[in-house]
C-alpha cells in the first residue's frame, strides 16, 4: 500500500486551478444562455449544426459528429432527433458503409447556423477574446493545447485536431 503524501497544490497552483474550474463551469453556461436567448438553441445544438455546416457536403457520420461536438453518441442521437423535428438535420444510411448513419445539414439548418453565428461569435469575443491582450491570447492557445494534450494524448480532442 502506497503511503506517499499527495502533492498538494501550492497557493499559486490552487488559485490557477480554482480560476480554471470556475471558467470551465461558467463559460459554457454563459454561451448556452446567449444561444438559448437569441437563437432558441443550446450550445451543444449549435456545435452540432456548426460542425455539419463546415463539413464537406454538410454531411458527417454520426460517430464523427459526436466526437467533434464533444458528446456521446447517445446524447448526439437525442439532439439530432430534436433537430430533425425542426427540419434542420436529416439522417441517412452511409452509402459507403451501411453500418454507419450520416447526419446531413438541411438548407433550413444552414440558415439557422448562419442566423445564430453572429450572436455566438460576439459572445465568444466578449467573454474570452476581448478581455485578453494579444500575448495573453497566444498564451491561452498554448495553455489549452497543453491541457488538452494531457487530457487526450492520442489527439481525439476537436481543438487539437484543428490546431
UniProtKB/TrEMBL annotation:
SMART domains from the UniProt entry: HTH_MARR
InterPro entries: HTH_MarR-typ, MarR/SlyA-like, WH-like_DNA-bd_sf, WH_DNA-bd_sf
GO molecular function: DNA-binding transcription factor activity
Gene3D superfamilies: Winged helix-like DNA-binding domain superfamily/Winged helix DNA-binding domain (1.10.10.10)
UniProt GO BP: response to stress
Family matches, as SUPFAM superfamilies: Winged helix' DNA-binding domain (SSF46785)
Residues that span the membrane, as ranges: none
Pfam families recorded: MarR_2
Residue span, HTH marR-type domain: 11-149
Name assigned to this protein: MarR family transcriptional regulator
Species assigned in the record: Nonomuraea cavernae
